[in-house]
Amino acid sequence: VVTQRVADAAERAGFVFAVDPTSAEASCIGGNIAMNAGGKKAVLWGTALDNLASWRMVTPDAQWLEVTRIGHNLGKIHDAEMASFELQYFEADGKTPIRTERLDIAGKTFRKEGLGKDVTDKFLSGLPGIQKEGCDGLITSARWVVHRMPAHTRTVCLEFFGNAKDAVPSIVEIKDFMFAEQKRSGVLLAGLEHLDDRYLKAVGYATKSKKHGGGLPKMVLFGDIAGDDADDVARVTSEVVRIANSRAGEGFIAISPEARKKFWLDRKRTAAISRHTNAFKINEDVVIPLPRMAEYTDGIERINIELSLRNKLKLCDALEDFFLRGNLPLGRQDDAHEIPSAELLEDRVAQAVALVGDVRALWSGWLRDVETLFPQLQDHTLRASWKTQLRAPLGEIFAGAAFQPIMKEAQAIHQRVLKGRVWVALHMHAGDGNVHTNLPVNSDDYDMLQTAHEAVARIMVLARSLDGVISGEHGIGITKLEFLTDDELRPFAEYKQRIDPDGRFNKGKLLRNQELLAPAGQALQAASIEKLPAHSRRSLMYADLTNAYTPSFGLMGHESLIMQQSDIGAIADSVKDCLR
After folding, report:
1. pLDDT < 70: residue spans in the chain
2. How much is the pTM?
3. Cα(566)–Cα(547) distance, rounded to whole angstroms?
4. Which among 165, 281, 465, 494 is most buried, taking Cβ atoms within 10 Å?
């Protein structure tokens, strides 16, 4: 059953289905449970786990298992002192009872304390199905808790200019105010979404503020504020705008359904972030404690500055190679006297090479001292600029019609190098700290993919250093497995070995090599791998990207190299808009 169809059915009955991932039109209910999916409503009602009353699944032993939540707290599961579940097993006919078990799990163990989402614990105290990414059975049906949306809703759009570090604390202030207001008047924060300036540029955001000359904000927040009393909703919405004003932000309010829908349209166009590439992006979601979100955005800015400087240094190398290779293109002239002499051309080339060398030295120094110079690089007091530091002075060196082909090729070199620049863009479910950290890449550019992979590794380290987790709703899959420790994976590996030793469901997923090769019911120590038969050692199974060969997981690069040297890249480019 497609998620959106369930949401539509709930809406027709006057209710709200809480699970609303961006993939609602493509994802299914079973997948929502297996991944513990969330969405923008999670700030109010939590993720799939918080809203499940029961679910039914097929086990690796071809039995039916029905899991029922006992004494549901009708709220977020981590707020319950104890969450209890009844596990009823049936024969293949679905009717003949086999046994009944009960699981009592402390509520605080479901997520890392202080986080609204966290799907890194695959074991989850042995609770079947949920968050297991399809590794312990096939989920076939579920019963859900649905919610009633209050009678009146207003949508706010909050634009923040200046430094993102100064604006991000407003997220905490708004959330704290709204949660207190919910207890006081019943007015709810039914969603709070964030887009950074890179996303705003990608979606073609039209700035609403008239005070900044139409320039893009550093970040925008979209929020739904709902309640049964229209006056209370109006009062609370105005206070949220005031909070934004105190952080150099401006607020705009939509009341009618049509106006509210327009406010949310930009949030729905986030796929546009990858339109400058061949429609591929690496989307690594992390969850950061809200009080430390400003540190995370600063960390991402630091990574972006370094990536930009590295790309600029590649440009310097490419320009220098061009100028030194000889046989530079010159324009045709009617008058032979206007053709530059060899001496003149040599002098101009020497000036250009010296210029590029000086600029490279300057930018290299900024990259070397980025920690010290970060504030100036962040506020653009120091700015590595192709236009002002290279193109303009090169235009003066190669002035005149005869040198125009040289400048044209320099511009083309800049475009080619710029196409391979990696950068990180953020949009988040701001109310619960779930940040979608996106890196648009060209899957036919091997170097770009390797650079992106290095950036992802830094992002994972950054998230953990701020007491965050490396996934809030996207799961672990194969791309994040390398970032989990053996201690974190061990409980799930032991669970998998116990309930599915033959690997009937998603064999090898979420497991290290040792677990994949171990005989049923046994653990395999790293040292004992050498004792395995030669054919077993040669066929080591990897559950991460080690043996992956598809451009969709293009971090490995083999197919990137193939695409670079064939027509496949051109074909991919021709259909990228259709795919998106």
Report:
1. 270-280, 332-339, 513-580
2. 0.83
3. 22
4. 281
How far apart are the two ends of the chain, measured CA to CA in Å? 23
CA distance 560 to 572: 12
Cβ 209 vs Cβ 250: under 8 Å: yes
d(CA 558, CA 554): 8
pLDDT confidence of residue 319: 97
pLDDT at residue 429, rounded to an integer: 87
Domain boundary among 259, 275, 291: 275
Look-up of token digits 């009708």:
74
User: CA torsion sign, 106 to 486 to 496 to 139?
Assistant: positive
Residue environment code for 65-85, b if the CB has 16+ CB neighbours within 10 A, otherwise e: bbbbbeebeeebbbebeebeb
Q: Confirm if 194 and 288 have CB atoms less than 8 A apart.
A: no
Quote the pLDDT of residue 72: 96
> Is residue 561, in this structure, part of any structural domain at all?
no
3-state SS, 447-505, equals HHHHHHHHHHHHHHHHHHHCCCECCCCCCCCCCCHHHCCHHHHHHHHHHHHHHCCCCCC
Q: What sign does the dihedral 253-258-261-266 (CA atoms) show?
A: negative
Q: Which two tokens stand for residue 574?
A: 């021709």
Cβ neighbours of 9 (radius 10 Å): 13
| Predicted local distance difference test score (pLDDT) of residue 114 | 82
The set of residues, in sequence order, having a beta carbon less than 8 Å from that of 159 and lying 6+ positions away, is 207, 208, 209, 217, 220, 249, 250, 251, 252
Distance CA 361, CA 364 (A): 5
Torsional sign, CA 529, 534, 535, 537? positive
- How far is CA 457 from each of CA 296, 352, 463, 479, 480, rounded to the nearest angstrom? 14, 37, 10, 11, 9
- Inter-residue contact 428 to 397 (CB < 8 Å): no
Its domain, for residue 200, covers 149-275
Q: CA angle, corner 492, sides to 491 and 493, nearest 5? A: 90
What pLDDT score does 512 carry?
77
pLDDT given for residue 343 in this prediction: 82
By C-alpha distance, which of 470, 568, 418 is closest to 120?
A: 470
Residue 480 lies in a domain: no
- DSSP annotation of 561 reads H
Looking at residue 445, its pLDDT comes to: 83
Please check whether residues 88 and 164 belong to one and the same domain.
no
> What separation in angstroms does the CA of 51 have from each of 24, 137, 330?
16, 20, 69
* Cβ count within 10 A of residue 414: 18
- 526 in a structural domain: no
Encoding tokens for residue 185?
Answer: 């008047």
Tally the domains of the chain: 3
- Among 227, 242, 275, the domain-final residue is 275
pLDDT reported for residue 480:
86
Please tell me the distance from the alpha carbon of residue 79 to that of residue 573, in angstroms, as a whole number.
48
